[in-house]
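Explain this fold:

***
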Amino acid sequence: MPDDQDIPEPINEARLWSDERWMARVIKNEDDDGWAVSMTLHGEAEPALVGPWTMGRDKKNPKPLDVSAFNTLVKTASEVLRRHEQQLHAQLNKNLAITTAQGQRLRVALAIVPDEEGATATLSAQDELGEEIARVPVSPGFKLTVATATAWVEGGFEKPR
């Protein structure tokens, strides 16, 4: 459980707004005369979301941040992170169903665990009831296809080469 010193104080300024998780910062758009807003999760170096921001009534300065705009930005940035996590999960975890020569339906799955020092991967097979019947380590570069899954199963679940 984090202590109170780790939770940042809320900021409610015209161009800077934050809560215990997110910080919204209105910035000059480098590409044109307009403004942009960045949403950064506390502790992260890069923003999760950067988008255009509305001009104020004077058509020179940005519209000030407010609670409603901040809440909308938090929802949007959270959705961007959620989609990114789903995409990464889909890239690292693949599975397919095959039918063996004996007519048994199996689900074969490839799970890759990224690591800065070297990713690892596991190939596994489950029966129709979801019971795991085999698991072997494989190269993170292993390509899971119906053909490779079938060959693995027909080869007695030996580690693919």
Observations:
- Residues 4-91 form one domain.
- The chain has two domains: 4-91, 100-154.
